[in-house]
Amino acid sequence: MPKVKSHSQKPRKGRLQKELKEIEELENRCQALSIEDEIIKFSELPITEQTLRGLTKANYTDLTSIQQHAIPLALKGRDVLGAAKTGSGKTLAFLIPILEILYRRLWSQLDGLGALVIAPTRELAVQIFEVLRKVGCQHSFSAGLIIGGKNVRIEQERIQRMNILICTPGRLLQHMDQTVGFDCANLQMLVLDEADRILDMGFRKTVNAIIENLPKERQTLLFSATQTKDVKDLARLSLTDPEYVSVDELSEHATPKRLKQHYLICELPEKLDFLFSFIKTHLDAKILVFLSSCKQACPTTSLRLKVRFVYETFRKLRPGISLLHLHGKQKQSKRVEIFNGFMRSSSSCLFSTDIASRGLDFPAVDWVIQVDAPENGETYIHRVGRTARYDASGQALLFLLPSEVNGMLKVLMQKKVPIDEIEVREKMKTSVRQQMQVLCFKNPEIKYLGQKAFVSYMRSVYLQRDKSIFKVNELPAEEFAAALGLPGTPKLKFYKKSDAKNAIRQKPEKVPGLDSDSEVETLAEYSLKRHTVADDNEPFSDNEKDKTKQQSKPLTKFERMMRRKNRNVLSDHYRKLVELENEEGGGDDVLSVKRVDHELPEQLLVENKGPQSNRAAARALSKKQSIKNAPRGRKIIFDDSGDPHDVYEFQNEQDFRAVGSSNEQIKTFVEKELQVMENEDIKDRAALAESDTVTLATGDEDATMGEWENAESVENEMDEMNHNKRLKRTFDNDIHRNSDESSNSDTGEERRTNSNPRKKQKVVEIKEPETLEDQEELALKLLART
């Protein structure tokens, strides 16, 4: 037995020594690497055979530009900031170093978490995980995917055994706070894919909390198409002498060479007409459409409303191509289904928010359409990067308003983005304005989505930072609402606030046409007065508005119906809308109105003219609410002299001890209560003696009892009554038992007698004997019983 053990250990020791020798050679080759070395193929890199077999199996043979510069630095253990064009292979630039460094350090499942990759979106995390499965299939590391929308308990059971973790920031922080035993103390590498998006304001608090739980001595890799250089962001990550690798600074353009980019100048009401016409003329293409974008415009709620509205309306118009829509409030299963469906399809159109603009690798996308202008140049680069990936070609089209052309072209020029203008033939243009009006008339949910889409777009423009490009006051609000099929323009509270802020910022000037000093108004007051948005959103003063109302034609029945507000949110149409919203996200309800609770004065009923505000004010001032919110009183009692006292009133200690000791007070209280009880007992006896007669029921006879002179005779008579009752009860029970025994003897059944006298006896009716034979039979039964 010992000989077998020694023979079995020799190969293990030899294999381990050979592996250690290979690792030492790889380490020396990695340290000798230089960026100046021209490495074209993966086989020329100092990597293990397992990684090389995985790359060959996944058909990866040649290195891209970002991989040639970033992988050698990462293999040396240096911190890297990598910036490259979309579709340039940044994913392999950090996955290969992760596999190699963990292998060289003999990492195993007992060592815990070794590498952490954070992505901003779930779809990007899934894509990175799939690439890792292909490349690292020959290694023995355990890898996991941690994203939102999955079962947390299942993830908690497996996360402790993971060596490589691909995750999103929110779910990772949740496991750090809630999962017992999840430890990142041995972390070797941290990778941030799309680092500029993760480090911005949207993930700032989450990333700060995650970094606090990570060790400072680690290797950090940051990759993105538009890399951040902010010193504050880099200081938060505790980078040590990072190497900045950018392959785009020396190139002419920041976008792929095979990407053809165009922009189209059109008015805001014509955007949907141009989009529908484009889709109708490209039925065999694979199209990705991006709608309004603004990080500050509540991306979880407002941005998806326009995506849903365009998707629902175009789906009913039936352009002849498969339509899909993607936004962040959908359930994870539905998002994966839409993502995979668009990847497999050869011709389809996907309406999406910026959730699909980062890192996603959609194969063979022909066109990227940006219906609404991006907020900055970085967002534009990420959007158009969904097409023309690797060696493929693609085209991009940007819709610009006349007020956005100069500013946006200047931004794109600074980012080295070549773009040309195109024009649309009038013959190819199709107008859908009338069809949109019919859809809003027939489907109240479409009308509701249209109203919310209008408000969300205007809010997104209002909240944009670059006011030289996005000017909400110059947008034709009424015409845009009509283009969406809405008969009226929804209210825009922030629109009014924007006018007020702009008016205050302007310097006081004389208004043209006013000469006298008494009639001089400042330009701020004049602008605020002219541009105050009323209920119908007409920028006129009160006098001018009254004149126009008098001269306007009376409203038709159709217009009155369409201008009515949706008061009944529990109708069938809105119930369907809520159910659809719950299916997609189950989170924020689009029909829920979140308001701050505050007191409503009585004047509000007169001042507010809206029907909803009147109802809210009336409900707040109702009798039920006044009783509910009334101050609560206290319960009091009155003594013999009529003075009020609390039910539980405490006496001062001094007053209590002045009466006497506690034992004496207890004795006095007991004697007093005993005297009260004796007095009440005497009263009860006297009342009983004064009663005239007492009737006792003894079967069919009534016994009448006379009067007694004293209480002792009453007690004796009561004892006699109870004795008679017991005798009668015993006689009745005997009769019932005899009848039961006779019935059992006739049927042949045996029953046990009830030994418990308190248990209820079964009542048996006995017929009165009519003949002499019946009387004899009954007497024999009674005698047999005795």
UniProtKB/TrEMBL annotation:
Region feature (Disordered): 531-555, 714-768
UniProt xrefs under InterPro entries: DEAD/DEAH_box_helicase_dom (IPR011545), Helicase_ATP-bd (IPR014001), Helicase_C-like (IPR001650), P-loop_NTPase (IPR027417), RNA-helicase_DEAD-box_CS (IPR000629), RNA_helicase_DEAD_Q_motif (IPR014014), SPB4-like_CTE (IPR025313)
Enzyme Commission number(s): 3.6.4.13
Manganese listed as a keyword: no
Annotated DEAD-box RNA helicase Q domain residues: 40-68
Domain Helicase C-terminal: 271-430
Assigned keywords, A-Z: ATP-binding, Helicase, Hydrolase, Nucleotide-binding, Ribosome biogenesis, RNA-binding, rRNA processing
Basic and acidic residues biased stretches: 729-740
Keyword Protein biosynthesis: no
One Pfam family in the UniProt entry: CTE_SPB4
Gene Ontology cellular component annotations, sorted alphabetically: nucleolus
Domain Helicase ATP-binding: 71-245
Catalytic activity: ATP + H2O = ADP + phosphate + H(+)
Enzyme class: hydrolase
GO biological process: rRNA processing
Positions of short motif Q motif: 40-68
Compartment annotation: Nucleus, Nucleolus
GO-annotated molecular function: ATP binding; hydrolase activity; RNA binding; RNA helicase activity
Record remark on domains: The Q motif is unique to and characteristic of the DEAD box family of RNA helicases and controls ATP binding and hydrolysis.
Family: Belongs to the DEAD box helicase family.
Cited function: RNA helicase.
Protein name: ATP-dependent RNA helicase
Organism name: Paraglomus occultum
